[in-house]
Write a structure and sequence with these properties.
This protein has a domain at about 5-260: Amidase signature (AS) enzymes (Alpha-Beta Complex). Helices cover about 35% and strands about 15% of the residues. It is built from 16 helices and eleven strands. Helix 9 (about 280-295) links the parallel strand 7 (about 265-270) and strand 8. Helix 10 (about 310-325) crosses helix 12 (about 355-370). The longest helix is centred in the last third of the chain and has 24 residues, at about 375-395. The protein is globular, with a radius of gyration of 21 Å. It starts with 8 loop residues before the first helix and ends in an 11-residue tail after the last helix.
Length: about 500
């Protein structure tokens, strides 16, 4: 018999509705799994008392025939989403002990729909990283391992805790955020499904900011259907966020089974980067064949400004980060390290509270916004961003319905293997995902196979603005054809 924590979200929802088990039993199964898997360091904070209390309410609702869309479903929450009365750290010492007096819009929507909170998930500090090695609360370890190897692997980042917890069956789904690939890249490295919706589909209110014009919340789950179910609850208009679209939320779950017959899928030639591994190229080709076999037309397209996306992103994102993180000064909340005067307190607090990668990005951002360099760097990067967006608009205007690319340049790598001496090596992990954020488009990563070492590889689907439905339909075709990626063994238990 399948353990309760190994069910998909849809299976658990249907089982609760049929009263095959209770929400309390489902929550306890996940709490037990979390206890055994603490070596993965996926959770910064576990909230068992709150989970059981929320599950009790869910059981009452189910018994009364008043079940809500996510009634009794246990979720993990990336520790970038403010949760009322529960410590929220953004993976940083500078927010140590911070308990918000408000709830983020995304988590509020999940609790409104009956979900259960298991705890707060680990992440790269302030979502700055591609491997979950920059958290002040330690590295997250992937539940995956290479064939015949004990090397600990990264789960990707910044939503590494979310991806690892979902892959290891420590929650049925998780919230995540994506600024340059931080949902899609960890999903690809852990054999899970993750979608970054269109910028504005989910409210950013109450989510700790990294780069405000790029950040977007989305779900990570084990199947395409589960992701669709979660996004349906997370999304929606919010007057408190002026960038949040005032649009109705479609029935994403219904779109999953829609198929791709009659659709035209674009293959951008610029994504065939130098040094791309033969495995990634073969996976990409297989993905295109899967879509063709299901009735889609596949043709090559050009997105000519793609090569400039990575350098432009690493100007725009740090510039916005340097502005957003100026609020952490030791005055109102979080860490405070005294100094001889207020300037000294600012300096001491930030020196002690921010990690190395955060400091690096703040300094880069401050530099590109400084007098004499603003026009040379920041303004030029924003012009490139406009050209990247135009490339996508022209592709969609030519009849393309969605675009298929690799999600990552490689499978998961070992802890400490990249970026220790050269941060640019780590930044290159985002080479396939960054354009989507720069253009504000939806992007989805779906598992499509394993590499020669037995590690998962993902494909990325990029859609028109506010057309996540087509991505779910196409992703389901790939998931069905490739088969669901299953974790071989729980080596940590």
């Amino acid at each position: 018999m399948t353990s309760l924590n190994e069910l998909t979200l849809a299976e658990a929802r249907d089982g609760l509705k049929a009263k095959d088990f209770s929400a309390g039993e489902l929550a306890r199964a996940h709490l037990a799994a979390m206890e055994k898997a603490r070596g993965l360091n996926a959770y910064i904070l576990e909230t068992p008392e709150r989970a059981l209390a929320m599950a009790e309410v869910a059981d009452t609702k189910i018994a009364a025939g008043e079940a809500r869309p996510l009634e009794g479903i246990p979720l993990g929450i990336k520790d970038l989403f403010c949760t009322h009365g529960v410590v929220t750290t953004a993976g940083s010492k500078i927010l140590e002990g911070f308990q918000p007096h408000y709830e983020s819009a995304v988590t509020h929507n999940l609790w409104r729909d009956g979900a259960v909170m298991l705890g707060k998930l680990n992440l790269d500090e302030f979502a700055m990283g591609s491997s979950n090695e920059t958290s002040a609360y330690g590295d997250v370890v992937s539940p995956w391992r290479r064939n015949k190897s004990d090397t600990k692997l990264v789960p990707g980042g910044s939503s590494g805790g979310s991806a690892a917890a979902v892959a290891a069956h420590l929650c049925l789904g998780a919230t995540a955020t994506d600024t340059g690939g931080s949902i899609r890249q960890p999903a690809a490295l852990t054999g899970t499904v993750g979608i970054k919706p269109t910028y504005g589909r989910c409210s950013r209110w109450g989510t700790v900011a990294y780069a405000s014009s790029l950040d977007q919340a989305g779900p990570i789950a084990r199947t395409v259907r589960d992701c669709a179910i979660l996004l349906g609850s997370m999304a929606g208009p919010d007057a408190r966020d002026t960038t949040c679209a005032d649009l109705p939320v479609p029935d994403f779950e219904a779109a999953v089974s829609r198929g791709v017959k009659g659709l035209t899928i674009g293959i951008p030639k610029e994504y065939r980067v130098d040094g791309m591994s033969a495995e990634i190229q073969a996976l990409w080709d297989r993905g295109a064949e899967m879509l063709k076999d299901a009735g889609a037309t596949v043709r090559e397209i050009s997105l000519p400004h793609t090569p400039y996306a990575l350098p432009a992103y690493y100007i725009v994102a740090p510039a916005e980060a340097s502005s957003n993180l100026a609020r952490y000064d030791g005055v109102r909340y979080g860490l405070r390290v005294p100094g001889k005067d207020i300037a000294g307190m600012y300096e001491n607090t930030r020196a002690a509270g921010f990690g190395r990668e955060v400091k690096r990005r703040i300094m880069i951002g401050t530099y590109v916004l400084s007098a004499g360099y603003y026009d040379a760097y920041y303004v030029r990067a924003q012009k490139i961003r406009t050209l990247i967006k135009r490339d996508f608009e022209e592709a969609y205007a030519s009849g393309i319905d969605a675009i298929l690319t690799p999600a990552t340049p490689s499978a998961a790598f070992g802890l400490g293997e990249k970026g220790s001496g050269d941060p640019v090596e780590m930044y290159l992990q985002d080479v396939f995902t960054i354009t989507v954020n720069m253009a504000g488009l939806p992007g989805l990563s779906v598992p499509a196979g394993l590499d020669a070492q037995g590690l998962p590889l993902g494909l990325q689907l990029i859609g028109r603005p506010f057309d996540e439905e087509t991505l779910f339909a196409a992703a389901q075709v790939i998931e069905t054809a490739a088969g669901r990626t299953k974790l071989p063994a729980a080596w940590w238990a």
